[in-house]
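Researcher: Quick test of sequence recovery. Tokens follow.
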């Protein structure tokens, strides 16, 4: 079955990037000239996703405004002869059919996904974490969709991380299947050193069957008093198995100050308007380090 729907959880408070996120959603923090969430929506659209649900919270109406039409701005751009930027602005509104729902209480990623139950229905669906911008030649969501087509099981995007990082993320129990693809039979959220299965962790993307909602509804609240999506996926992995895809692409953690800086530098270097001058600037800066 073709993956047509995607959910983007974007309700978090962004406490790691305060004070920038006090009045502006962290998903709207800019990477050169586009907000982080636009990169995520573009990735979904390039992967064949048609319908997107963005899960927001109080104070995040700017996310909705960004993907909406802006008649006054559009009219002014046309009147000024700025047709290129006009086309860019209008194209943002045509990326996909985007709807929104609010997570009224931040009770964890699993709770956020439960908010998408009526939107998803009985179809498999993609989840693209709102904190994670992943850039590369081939959209990561599309790489996961291909694995779902091949195996018919839930799929997670995975990468090897350090032992220090794995204790902050999740650890996968893996068995090699094919190039960059693994069978996952167990997982654990924020493991202690003696609980680590492997250094493979879920980073930002997954494809889930609709059955995940029933599992979530029967999953007890876990780490931090929150409903953890990883706990529900653990049940899925143990009962029927999941697929891990060691994806191609560079991930930027937009919930961290360093991740934001890395994204700005690397996207800025590749940007047609800024690349050459920015590269020269960095060379001069590097001489002083």
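Model:
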């Amino acid at each position: 079955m073709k993956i047509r729907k995607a959910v983007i959880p974007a309700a978090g408070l962004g406490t790691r990037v305060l004070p920038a996120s006090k009045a502006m959603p962290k998903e709207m923090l800019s990477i050169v000239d586009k907000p982080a969430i636009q990169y995520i929506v573009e990735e979904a659209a390039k992967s064949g996703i048609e319908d997107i649900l963005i899960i927001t919270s109080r104070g995040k109406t700017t996310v909705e405004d960004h993907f909406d039409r802006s008649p006054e701005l559009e009219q002014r751009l046309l009147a000024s002869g700025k047709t290129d930027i006009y086309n860019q602005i209008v194209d943002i509104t045509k990326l996909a059919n985007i709807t929104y729902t609010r997570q009224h209480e931040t009770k964890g990623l699993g709770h956020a996904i439960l908010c998408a139950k009526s939107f998803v229905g009985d179809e498999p669906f993609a989840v693209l974490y709102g904190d994670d911008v992943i850039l590369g030649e081939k959209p990561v969501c599309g790489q996961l969709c291909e694995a779902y087509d091949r195996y018919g099981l839930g799929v997670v995007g995975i990468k090897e991380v350090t032992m220090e990082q794995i204790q902050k993320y999740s650890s996968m129990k893996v068995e090699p299947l094919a190039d960059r693809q693994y069978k996952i039979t167990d997982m654990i959220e924020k493991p202690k050193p003696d609980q680590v299965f492997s250094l493979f962790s879920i980073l930002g993307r997954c494809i889930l069957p609709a059955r995940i909602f029933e599992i979530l509804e029967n999953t007890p609240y876990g780490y931090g008093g929150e409903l953890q999506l990883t706990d529900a996926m653990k049940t899925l992995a143990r009962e029927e198995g999941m697929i891990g895809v060691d994806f191609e692409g560079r991930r930027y953690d937009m919930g961290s100050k360093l991740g934001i800086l890395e994204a700005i530098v690397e996207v800025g270097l590749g940007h047609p308007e800024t690349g050459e001058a920015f590269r020269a600037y960095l060379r001069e800066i590097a001489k002083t380090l």
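The longest strand covers residues 170-178.
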